[in-house]
Every structure is written in structure tokens, then in C-alpha cells.
Amino acid sequence: MVKGLIFDLDGVIVDTARYHYLAWKKLAGEIGISIDEKFNQSLKGISRTESLDKILIHGDKGNIYSSDERNVLAMRKNEYYLELLGRVSPNDILPGVLELITKANEYNIPCAIASASQNAPEILKKLDIINYFKAIVDPTTLKKGKPDPDIFLKAAELIHVYPQYCIGFEDAAAGIQALKKANIYSIGVIAEGPLPEADQVVHSLSEIDLDLLFK
Ligand code: B16
Ligand code: MG
């Protein structure tokens, strides 16, 4: 029986991957690195600093920048990203999300956000759905990001539900692995590549049978 729902953000609730891509592309271009949409797929679900590291390695510049310089680059990318986020509105909520969180709230099933994004609270405010969530994990408080299970275990702890009674929704392979390690039933939301490790897969949350889920 389900007692708690834990959601990834980007790719599950809203598709901000395009904005991450445009912001990284601009930053990378400024330091002489070219990235394409295919490469951007490998940045899904991983943190800002890990994404920057991958981009630098991809451009053969893995050893050029000090840690302070990397921080400046990551902050600059975030400024570009925040500019693009100005366009986000409730119209961008992905299909099925509002129905699912509304029903969960009706049934007093707590919902949490387990996203690698430090911008999650800001994005949820822009989507006008922040009040549906009892907890938002702050990814900066964790030692390790996905595929380690910490972020999902923390989310379960914050909503006071044992992991085995939670369901997690994720679009990235690293997130599905994290859910498995956390002993949380995983529903993979497929946009591009398959998610063979997920317990169940859907193409959008609108495919979820709410009566079955909350019975
Ligand atoms: P920020 P998720 C992730 O969101 C994105 O998929 C990933 O591309 C991004 O690098 C990460 O958030 C960090 O985002 O720069 O806003 O802190 O899928 O974990 O919701
Ligand atoms: Mg995601």
C-alpha cells in the first residue's frame, strides 16, 4: 500500500532539460567547448558541478580550471538558466502531474521532491504547485547525489514514510538506480532512452491509474 510519493523534478514534473542545455551551451561556447543535444542527455539528473566537470572533460579542459574558477563558471551557467526559467509557467506542468498530486493530497498521501536541482523550490513556485509538496530535499545537504540512494532516503524521512511504502518517479537512469538502492518502487518516465531497471515505465504520468494507485 502506498503511503508516500517522491518525485524527481526535471523530466517528471516539468521539462527544463532544454533550458539547462541552452544555458550550458552558452557557457561552454564562451570557453571554447561545443556541446550538442546528444551530449546533453548525459547531464540529465546529475548535479551542476558534476555537469560542468563532464563538459570540461568533453572539451579536453578537465585540468585547466581551479576549483574557484569552476565555481564561477557554474554560477554563470546558473544565471543563464535562471534567465531562461523566467519563461516557465503553470502551462509547463507535464501531463498527469496535477491530477496525481491533487489526488494524493486528497488522500493525505504526502508528496516530496527529490531533485538534483538547487532551483527546485523556485521552479515549483513558478509552476504554482509548491504547496502540494510536504518536503523538498535540499541537494546541497547530501554527501552524494544520484545514483546513490541518499536523496530518496532523505525524502522518505522528511515525509515520515518508510521507503518500502513509497513510490518514486524518475526520468534518469541514475535516479532509477538510486531508487532501487533505497528500496523504493520505481516508476520510470520515459522521454528518450529506455529505463530497463525501473519497476514500471510510463511515457507520462497521465498513464497512471489513480484508482489502482490509491486503492
Ligand atoms: P541546478 P532533476 C537535474 O534535475 C537536471 O536533470 C540536471 O540536468 C541538472 O544539472 C540538475 O538538476 C541540477 O540543476 O543547476 O538547477 O541545481 O532531474 O534531478 O530534477
Ligand atoms: Mg530528472
List the helices and strands and how they pair.
Blueprint: E1 4-7, H1 17-30, H2 37-41, H3 48-58, H4 67-85, H5 97-106, E2 111-113, H6 120-127, E3 135-136, H7 150-158, E4 166-170, H8 173-181, E5 185-189, E6 200-202, H9 210-213
Parallel strand pairs: 1-2, 1-4, 2-3, 4-5, 5-6
Helix pairs in contact: 1-4, 3-4
Low-confidence stretches: none
Through-space gap between termini: 8 Å
Tell me the Rg in angstroms. 17 Å
Binned, the helix content reads: 40-55%
- The count of strands amounts to 6
Query: Oligomeric form of this entry?
Result: single chain
What features would you describe in this structure?
There is one protein chain. The protein is of the alpha/beta class and 215 residues long. The chain is 41% helix and 10% strand. The chain contains nine helices and six strands. It has a six-stranded parallel β-sheet. Helix 1 (17-30) crosses helix 4 (67-85) and helix 3 crosses helix 4. The structure holds 1,6-di-O-phosphono-beta-D-glucopyranose and magnesium ion. Magnesium ion is lined by residues 8, 10-12, 44-45, 171-172.
